[in-house]
Structure formats: C-alpha cells, structure tokens
Specification:
3 domains, FAD/NAD(P)-binding domain, single chain, seven-stranded mixed β-sheet, binds 1,4-dihydronicotinamide adenine dinucleotide, 460 residues, Enolase-like, domain 1, globular
Length: 460
C-alpha cells in the first residue's frame, strides 16, 4: 500500500497548485520541497519580489519626475533602498505563508527536503543526513527551472550574478550591465535604472524581447531608450569576469564594457538533474521531460508539468498544467489551451501578448487583417498621463477570428485578460467591438483596435 495517492516533487506554482487541486479531488496528497518556503522561484526570487520592486521603483520615479505635472510639488524625494528591499521581503513572506496555510487547510502533507526518484512509485527524501522513502500511486515532477549560464561568464558574488542577486543589491549600482534583453533583463534593468543606475543591456539578437511581436518589441525598445536604458544589440557576450577587482564584459569584436554590477539573464534550464530519472529509465529530450497530452511521461505512474516540459516557462502555464494533470488522474477532463497563454513583461509601460505574432502569421502564410490603436487617443490613458504604446489586434482575413493581440501600454498585463478570453472563445474582432466597454477605461483601446481591424476606429 502506497503512502500517498499523489506525490508532487516541487512546491512552485505548478506543484503547489496541483497539490491543492489533488486534495480537493479527494486524493491523499503530499508535496516535497527542498526550500523552507513554498512558492518556488516565482514567489521566492522571481515574479513576486521583482513585481514588488517594479512597483516601488516606479513610484520613486514618478515622485521624482512626474508628480510636478500633476501639480503635486514634493520637497526632495529620497530613496531608502533598505526599506524598499524590506517591503519586498515582506510581500514575499506574506504570500509564502499564505501558501503554507492553503496546504494545511487542504490537509496536504508537506515534506521538506530533496526528492529523488528511486524506482517505480518511489521517491527518497533527503533532509540533512536523514533519508526516508515514500511511495505513491502517481508521482508528478514539478521541479521548475534554474538560471542558464554562458560559457565565459564567471559568476562572482553579487557583482556578476543572476536575478536572485539583482533583487538584493545593497546600493544602487553606478553602471549595471544586463546580459540578455528578455523579460528578466528588462524588468530588473528597469528597476535599477529608475533608482538611478546607468543601465546597459547587451543582447545577441538585433531586437529585444525575442518571441514577442516585432512591432510592439521595437516600440517598447524606443520607450525604454527614452527612459535612459542603453541597448547594445547584435552583441554576443563572450565573457564576463572580474579583472583586477573590476567587472568586465567582453563582446565579440567590441570594446570591453566596465560594470559595477553584471546581471546575467540569458534564459533558464529545466531542473531535471539530481532527480534520479535514470532509475526509472526516463530520458529527457533537449533537457525537457517528454509528456503526452495528459502530462504522462513514457514511464507509467510518472507525470511532469511546468518548466520541466515543453512550452513557455511561465508560472500561470505551470498552474494550468498542475490542475489539468490531476483532473486527468481523477478521470475527469483536464485541458490547457496553449493557443491562449498570455505573456506579460512588467516594465513601464507593460508589454503583453497572446496568440500569434505578425511574423508567425506571415511565415505560416495566413491572410490576416490588422487593427492598431494608440493609447494617446484613449481618454483614460491621457488622464493617467500614460499615453505611450498601442494595442494591436491581428484577425483572420476571411473569418475575422482574433489570432493575436499585442499590447504596449499602461496596465497591459491586466488588459490582456480580455484578449485571452476572446481568443479562448474563438471571438471575432467584430464580437470584441460589439461588446460594451466602460468609458473612460484603458480597455476601450482594445475595442478601438478591434474596430480598426475593420477600418472603422472612432477616435483615430
Ligand atoms: P529569455 O530567454 O527571455 O531572454 C534571454 C535573452 O538573452 C535572449 O534575448 C537571448 O538572445 C539573449 N542572449 C543569449 N545569449 C546571449 C549572449 N551570449 N550575449 C548576449 N545576449 C544573449 O530569458 P530571461 O529573460 O532570462 O527569462 C527566462 C525565462 O523566465 C523565460 O522563459 C521568461 O519567459 C521567464 N520569465 C517571465 C517573466 C514574466 O512573465 N514577466 C519574468 C521573468 C522571467
């Protein structure tokens, strides 16, 4: 007889959500996590602390630079970085404690330590010098991912470090060099730029935000450049290391760049080593665990979700999969709509997208119509004083079905939810513009972009 019905390795957004749903469905459930706090990278050293700092640093920037435009005159605005970092830690502590409470409420067994598969249905837990083996009918691997490193880049404390260190710099760096213009680089680059650092982003490609719609990514780059961030595109970093006490970043064929801090943000790799996969003969494919549509691996009784399997490494994608896999285990229908997974960068303005990009439609030779509406023509954006950016909607030229929505603008991360719903329900651009949108709201920009698909925007 097994100890548990469902045993989940990893307590991040995929793992703990799967655990809660499994318990709700009546499974005797346990979750193994090696860190003392639950929530994974996202809660501890990713999404949540970075959003706390993004919010604080944006308030600091507004108070220093924009309040005057609203007629609010402050005496000198000062930064108390220690208090800002403390608040971030408090936000994280509150959330992780909340997850502990949810696990208790759902009577999920919390196992603290490193989980390693030792054979069919068996996981060995190591905590310090103690080991214990637990068995379960179903084992779900939800171990997430870790930072990728570049050959030639030598990490050195917080001076040459990753996002974990960049969430905790003790002082604002004079010059921060960010390697990689993905979400992590741009979000944390924005934080320190707003707090006064000179920020240089070095990117191998000829563009920022790979995978996002090009027009929106280029528009975002212009805005970030105006905000003071320097971009060095088409620069392949060959090395970053300490030389005589100084951090130096070297790119192919370029002058060396001197930095006070270097943030390496060139992607993430699935956490599949030290998991004992070999004990059950489960091999990875390009680092990821292969799964079928029900998230079952080729080895009976083992399942995998989140960053360790195919698809974007996003917390909400892992959560969807966590729920879907246990629904399947309960003999119910679990479904993840991979065509409608939003992606959001919490810069200022925010960047958000769902569905296909214009480049993907061109490549797939899909005939499409395009509607674009700028926030400068939206009343609420004007009142907020945040008029940068636009909404872009791509719809099928024949059926009018919405295929992609891409937004650069205020609260884009919240606005994209309407587009996700529209795409999930196979809505047309006409469906969207025939839907009443409250006035004055930022969401009206979506309605106008849908009207623009039909060449009939009212305010542009
Ligand atoms: P990323 O893969 O999004 O971007 C890394 C960038 O580094 C790419 O543009 C790549 O071309 C560049 N690069 C690679 N090698 C280079 C070299 N030698 N020299 C210069 N540039 C080089 O990775 P990132 O930003 O580290 O994010 C990792 C994962 O975490 C992604 O899957 C991302 O979606 C996810 N994430 C999502 C967030 C969100 O949803 N807001 C926030 C943070 C992370």
């Amino acid at each position: 007889m097994s100890n548990f019905d469902v045993l989940i390795i990893g307590g991040g957004p995929g793992g703990y959500v799967a655990a809660i749903r499994a318990a709700q469905l009546g499974f005797k459930t346990a979750c193994i996590e090696r860190e003392s706090t639950l929530g994974g990278t996202c809660l501890r050293v990713g999404c949540i602390p970075s959003k706390a700092l993004l919010e604080s640093s944006e308030l600091f920037r507004e108070a220093s630079q924009s309040f005057g435009r609203h007629g609010i005159i402050l005496p000198e605005v000062k930064l108390d970085l220690a208090a800002m970092l403390r608040r971030k830690d408090e936000v994280v502590a509150q959330l992780t404690k909340g997850i502990d409470g949810l696990l208790r409420k759902n009577q999920i067994t919390r196992l603290l330590g490193h989980g390693r598969i030792t054979g069919p249905g068996a996981v060995e837990l190591t905590a310090g010098d103690r080991t214990e083996t637990f068995t379960a009918k179903h084992i779900i691997i939800a171990t997430g991912s870790k930072v990728s490193l570049l050959p030639g880049v030598e990490l050195s404390g917080s001076t040459i470090g990753t996002s974990t260190e960049a969430l905790n710099y003790e002082a604002v760096p004079g010059h921060l060099v960010v390697i990689g213009a993905g979400f992590i680089g741009l979000e944390l680059g924005s934080v320190w730029s707003r707090l006064g650092a000179r920020v240089t982003v070095v990117e191998y490609l000829d563009r920022i935000l790979p995978g996002m719609d090009r027009e929106i990514a280029d528009a975002a780059q212009k805005v970030f450049t105006q905000q003071g961030i320097t971009f060095r595109l088409q620069h392949r970093v060959q090395s970053a290391r300490m030389e005589d006490g100084q951090a130096v970043v070297r790119c192919e064929g370029q002058e060396p760049i001197l930095a006070d801090k270097v943030l390496v943000a060139v992607g993430r790799n699935p956490n599949t080593d030290e998991l004992g996969l070999e004990s059950i003969g489960l091999s990875t494919e390009r680092g990821r665990i292969p799964v079928n549509a029900q998230f079952a691996t080729p080895v009976p009784g083992f399942y995998a979700i989140g960053d360790v399997i195919r698809g974007p490494m996003l917390a909400h994608k892992a959560e969807e999969e966590g729920i879907a896999v246990v629904e399947h285990l309960a003999g119910r229908v679990g479904h993840v709509n991979y065509d409608a997974i939003p992606s959001v960068g919490y810069t200022h303005p925010e960047v958000a997208s769902v569905g296909r990009t214009e480049e993907q439609l061109v490549e797939a030779k899909v005939a499409y119509k395009k509607g674009v509406f700028p926030f400068r023509a939206n009343g609420r954006a004007l009142a907020l004083g945040q008029t940068e950016g636009r909404v872009k909607i791509l719809a099928d030229a024949v059926t009018d079905r919405i295929l992609g929505v891409h937004i650069l603008g205020p609260r884009a991360g919240d606005l994209i939810a309407e587009a996700v719903t529209a795409i999930s329900f196979h809505a047309s651009a006409e469906d969207l513009f025939l839907t009443s949108h409250a006035h004055p709201t930022l969401a009206e920009a979506l309605k106008e972009a849908a009207l623009a698909v039909h060449g009939r925007a009212i305010h542009a």
